[in-house]
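thread from #wetlab-drylab

HS: before we spend reagent money on co-crystallization trials with adenosine-5'-triphosphate, can we at least see a predicted complex? here's what I'd submit
DV: go for it
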Amino acid sequence: MMNLSDPAISVRDLRVSRGGVEVLHGLAFDVPRGQVTGLLGPSGCGKTTLMRAIVGVQVVGGGEVRVLGEPAGSAGLRRRIGYSTQSPAVYRDLTVLENLRYFGAVLGAPKDDPERVLTEVGLAGAAHQLGSTLSGGQLGRAGLAVALLGRPELLVLDEPTVGLDPVLRQELWTLFHRLAEGGTTILVSSHVMDEAARCERLIVLRQGEILADDTPGGLRAHTRTTDLEEAFLRLIEERAAA
Ligand SMILES: Nc1ncnc2c1ncn2[C@@H]1O[C@H](COP(=O)(O)OP(=O)(O)OP(=O)(O)O)[C@@H](O)[C@H]1O
């Protein structure tokens, strides 16, 4: 049995190779429940690979990944995790609403869930548009809507705010915090450090290693700067000096 105080995600000595090259070099960290944890780091540092390992679709070379008390990839976790990727799988010849009804049925989500999630991601106005006609930002939100179907306990969101205007970005962050207040655990990646301030906890990755695992406040205090972009640079300098 799992305790509510147990971490939602627990990673130990995780090693992953892609295309014959090791891209995650023995990561270890926990993600607390009911919080928004940001996975931050530059393009190519391994964020997507790490998320794939957590949702159980990545072959791992070593180590342990436990999610909601079970080994990553367990069949029982399928409906408990919502995952949105950077290239959302949305059928182009179905409308947004038809897509959500289809995925909702596959997941066994409540009948009115498609309408609920459409409103939550601000896509109700595009409900009857075909997948093929969506803009990049709309497509991303459609993928996010799919991830919200069935109210999963854990949301793993790969760069969900890329390409969105500031108003929409703000709305999505408000949604993430509202979901977290309701007990949902959220792991969200971003390559822009200004989004770090919106997270309750941060895991900063660089070249397949963890540079920091802290709160935004802790990171600012440790690096003696209020600017998280600057904090990132100081962490790199610190690592180089060590
Ligand atoms: N199929 C693959 N074959 C070989 N190398 C790969 C493959 N997929 C990813 N990589 C490499 O693994 C590393 C980590 O990639 P990953 O997609 O996890 O990074 P990321 O931090 O998510 O980047 P981005 O923010 O640009 O999406 C990169 O160096 C990438 O080039």
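DV: The pocket of adenosine-5'-triphosphate is lined by residues 18-19, 23, 41, 43-49, 191 (CB under 6 Å).
HS: ok that's useful, forwarding to the group
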